[in-house]
Amino acid sequence: MPNNAEAASATTGLSFEKALEELESLVAKMEDGRLPLEESLAAYQRGAALIKFCEGKLTDAQARIAILEGDTLQDFKPEAK
Question: What kind of architecture, by CATH, is found in domain 4-75?
Answer without folding.
Answer: Orthogonal Bundle (1.10)
